[in-house]
Amino acid sequence: MQRTSFREMACSIARTLDVIGEPWSPLILRDIWVGMNRFDEIQADLGISRKVLTERLNHLVEHGVLERRPYDRRPRYEYHLTTKGTELVDLLMVMADWGDRWLAGEAGPPVLYRHHACGEISRVELRCAHCGKPMHANDVDVLPGPGSATPEAAATPSEPR
């Protein structure tokens, strides 16, 4: 089945969904992030069909999110996150934090995150890159940027919400 392409939309969310908006891709990235780098490991963990996994891995490699590294004489590869892929995992960590908060139930979160810098178990939190204060949906105004679909809108930002 042909997916709708969001690649040409003037929207960074749509363009990101064009790369990872299919349900298996974030789970594949999660598995690779935690160290499952071989096709058979990923396939066994997810229970995904070999055909779909092959398609998803190829798509992620084509978009520069993963790289293939041969691991024996046969044409067998391990998959590793690129810098671009590692930054996508940051997005998945924010998604996991939301899921832990709203969907984990009484059992609690299925995994914990130990921060390398301080050694403490923590959670992901969005912060402003400029001032360091927490940054959430109600803390920002959305203004047209230089890549906006309408160039004149980018030249004259709209009134804040």
Write the layout of secondary structure elements.
Elements: H1 12-20, H2 24-33, H3 39-46, H4 50-62, E1 66-70, E2 77-81, H5 83-102, E3 113-114, E4 121-122, H6 151-155
Antiparallel strand pairs: 1-2, 3-4
Helix pairs in contact: 2-5
Written account of the structure:
The radius of gyration is 19 Å and the shape is globular. The strands form two sheets. A two-stranded antiparallel ribbon has the order 1-2. The longest helix is centred in the middle third of the chain and has 20 residues. The protein has one domain: Arc Repressor Mutant, subunit A, CATH 1.10.10. Strand 1 and strand 2 form a beta hairpin. Helix 2 packs across helix 5. The protein has six helices and four strands; from the N terminus they run H-H-H-H-E-E-H-E-E-H. The chain is mainly alpha-helical and 161 residues long. The relative contact order is 0.09. The chain is 40% helix and 9% strand. The termini are far apart.
Q: Return the CATH class.
A: Mainly Alpha
On the 0-100 scale, what is the average pLDDT? 90
Largest sheet: 2 strands, antiparallel
Question: So how many helices?
Answer: 6
CATH architecture assignment name: Orthogonal Bundle
Instruction: Quickly give the structural class.
Output: mainly alpha
**Tertiary shape:** globular
Low-confidence stretches: none
What's the helical proportion of residues? Answer: 40-55%
Strand order of the largest sheet: 1-2
- Sheet-strand content, in percent, reads 5-15%
Distance from N terminus to C terminus (CA atoms, Å) equals 40 Å
Looking at this protein, list some descriptive labels.
161 residues; mainly alpha; Arc Repressor Mutant, subunit A; two-stranded antiparallel sheet; two-stranded antiparallel ribbon; 6 helices; 40% helix; 9% strand
